[in-house]
Amino acid sequence: MQIRPIISALWHHKSGTVLIVLQIALTLAIVCNALFIVHQRVTRMSRPSGVDEAQVLVIRNQWIGDPTQQQARALMSSDLETLRRVPGVVDVYASNGYPLGTDGWSKGVRYTMDQKSAASPTAIYFADEHALATLGLKLVAGRNFRANDIGDMAPRDSLMPRVIIITKALADKLFPDGHAVGRQVCIGNAPPSTIVGVVERMQTWSGSFSDAWVERSTLVPFRLLASSTAYLVRVQPGASQDVVRAALRGLFAANPLRVIGAKDVQAYDQVRASAYRSDRGMAILMGVICLVLLATTAAGIVGLTSFWVGQRRKHIGVRRALGATKNDILRYFCTENLLISVGGVIIGAQLTVALNALLVHRFEMQRLSLTYVAVGIVVVLLLGQCAVLVPAWRASRLPPVEATRSV
Amino acid sequence: MLGYYVQLAVHSFRRSPGLTALMVIIMAVGVAASMTTYAVFRAVSGNPLPDRSAQLFVPQIDNLGPQNGATRANLPDALTYIDAMALMRAHAASRQTAIYPIAGNVVPQDGVHRPFAVTGYAAYTDFFSMFEAPFEYGGAWSDGDDRARANVIVISSQLNRQLFGGANSVGKNLDLDGRDYRVVGVVDRWNPQPRFYDVNNGYGFGDAPDVYLPFTRAVDVHMGSNGNNNCSASSKPVAPGWDGWLQSECVWVSLWVALPDAAAVQRYREFLGDYASAQQRSGRFQWAANVRLSGMMDWLDHEGVVPPETKVSMLVAFGFLLVCLVNTVGLLLAKIMRRAGEIGVRRALGASRAEIYRQFIAEAAIVGVAGGALGLALTAMGMLGTDLLFDPDIAKLAHLTASLIGMTLLVAVTAAVMAGIYPAWRAARVQPSWQLKSQ
Q1: Residues of A with CB below 8 A from B311's CB?
Q2: Secondary structure (DSSP) of B301-337
Q3: Tens digits of residue pLDDT in B175-197
Q4: Which of A282, A307, A359 sits opposite B334 (nearest CB)?
Q5: What percent of chain B lies above the pLDDT cut of 90?
Q6: Distance of CA A5 to the CA centre of its chain
Q7: Where do the H-state alpha helices sit in A163-239?
Q8: Counting runs of H as helices and runs of E as strands, what totals does chain B give?
Q9: Residue range B54-71, pLDDT digits in tens
């Protein structure tokens, strides 16, 4: 197959060629970046939280009025008792927050009290000796809290834990040598706390501010005696529905002076869905735009090639009369499209990188990996070849007698 | 003449219905994607208080210090209780209010309904006049109520409907967290979005607040902030209890001031600098005064109110519209050049180049109108889908308004006409003699 006649034919259709090249270039740039966004969002959404999500429920509770510390302690332990008695409940504990929740506490971790800036931020989760079993967190070093580790804390008190359990991510950050258990760190401005255990993973609550330290969490051995509390409940498989009904009945029977709204009871898949709502939306939107864009470009290629075939009926007839086979004609149009597409992807690759640079600069996105550009190029070239097949095939069916007919 | 062009265009569409339909659909999809994302963007980036925004300002004071990462551009985005109260007492602006978000539980006294959770704000009386909150019944509490730390409350019309059936409830009592408050006003439907006065707590969008309490009263009854509380400036553990927290370096109070003109802004800026310098002299700050006074729109920008998702999706959608445009140029060109013979005949029969040009621009415009109409239908569908794609609180704000309808059609027609310029120019340059010869 000779390329020179194809190029000279394209030279006669400069504007059409330029338009397809431009369209392919823009398509490549947008599709690569959009798919990269989809990839990033899906990666974010598939981060494990560390929680055994299928079996955990969240019940957020608020007491009416201002219970005193003694009252709050009594109310909380009565609630935990009530929940433990519900058939289908395996374990339960109370906390200020939970992975993927809407809000929570954070503190800076320092090696010593007089260190000026924190070594790492960390999410703070209040916990007792049931927390690990309830959430299904895996202890990879050290020990769990014991019942006598657990103390009470009023909401305005300073957090001063004697012992803490941290996640592996935080342990690796603070002690890269891998020996965190038994070492001491300061949480916020508190005097040193001893690390007694390390859990494999426990995500922070949702939100972009903790994106850089998403698995650095700390469990502190306190019951937070605040008017609002989250009960984390581990249920037997398949028992959630019944547990929710029985738990609410039990809690309100024990003390009606509380608020548990309709949105305050959630299975963990709902917690996860609302935490990643905008990520999912973005992934869907970008995915749809990619598909429609590829379809549009394919349609454009079909349209313009059909037009060219229509214009060149006579040429095709002459070539067929002079001995060109149907395959020769088919190959001619496919090669022509390949040339145009290659021109498009060369410009498009540069546009892709430029668009990504803009997104990195303006919206703090990550840099696009070149694999994406490579995959995008292959996809666009294949798309061009597929799109051109129909008009090219139709061209190859033109009989040689076309040469003698007038338009 | 226009009628004739339309007739010719319709004739030409009949001859190639597939190609025409393709152009219209592609144009419609491109326009719909752009307009849907634009509608969401416009909803979140708008000015929530257009006639007042120029006079509302937010002061910031660096109580963090450079060693804790404060810079000229990066100051704590709330104030400590001590600073907020000092600025309130100084009365350096014509009107001012300290604000913090609160949450509580309303206990209905009918013995039937269960208690339910409400959210709102603790503020000073100026809050309502500064932010132009309209009242359905009654009005704001008085300056005296602020000073007397009175147990008064302003509620939303929604809460008023829920508790009092929508009747005038001024003077009635309401039980919030087991304490009685006297209703002094019912705010009519009022929910500026973004909620500029609370964006530093991340509550930029959402349903209207239910209750407003005097700041002084809320502090008296130890109602904690329902928003952020950042204690990274306190170098020693915060003293225990409520008063320890009030006196701490934790930041959790927002302050808004109304400054009518440039001179007042300048004076307030100086006042703020002087205040911080005094704190340095007293030994509280070990660094030079670092303060900032931002106007409302700068503040919204600084706090990053418009989610990046909104901007990125709009950017990508407009890129998509550009591809649709290029595509339409190609298809129009193909369509027009196929009719070179017909153009030659028209030219030979006396049509001028300008007339040919106008004819094809008209044809492109008709594609634009059709694409716009279909695009409008798709945009309307897209509006229903926004809550699948964006945060529901944000999606709720995007509506198909008259201006958006007009803009959709305008964008479609403009895009189509722009796409038609080059093909029409090419058509106008067709040489009649060549075309007639080749026939």
Answers
A1: 362-363
A2: HHTT-S-HHHHHHHHHHHHHHHHHHHHHHHHHHHHHH
A3: 998 899 999 999 999 999 899 99
A4: A307
A5: 51
A6: 50
A7: 168-174
A8: 16, 11
A9: 999 999 999 988 877 778
- B227 token code pair: 């928003």
Q: Do B22 and A65 touch (CB under 8 A)?
A: no
The alpha-carbon radius of gyration of chain A (Å, integer) is 32
Contact B426 A15 (CB under 8 A): yes
**CA-wise closest residue to A285 among A92, A33, A79:** A33
Entry pTM: 0.86
Pairwise CA distance, residues A139 & A142, whole Å: 7
> Is A158 a residue whose pLDDT tops 50?
yes
pLDDT at residue B203 is higher than 70: no
Q: Which positions in chain A touch B112 (Cβ < 8 Å)?
A: none
- Region of B170 (left: φ > 0; alpha: ψ -120 to 50; beta: rest) is beta
Residue B310's CB is within 10 A of a number of other CB atoms, namely 24
Q: What is the pLDDT of residues B247-278, one digit of tens each?
A: 999 999 999 999 999 999 999 999 999 999 99
Using the Cβ of B362 and the Cβ atoms of chain A, whether some distance falls under 8 Å is answered with no
Which one has a higher pLDDT value, B379 or B390? B379
- Judged by CB atoms within 8 Å, which residues 95-134 of A form the interface with B? 108, 116-117
Query: Which residues of chain A have a CB within 8 Å of the CB of B324?
Result: 296
- pLDDT of residue A113 exceeding 60, the answer is yes
Please give the residue of chain B at the shortest CA–CA distance from A191: B237
Average pLDDT over residues A117-133: 93
Among A319, A387, A94, residue whose Cα is nearest residue A220: A94
CB within 8 Å: A23 and B330: yes
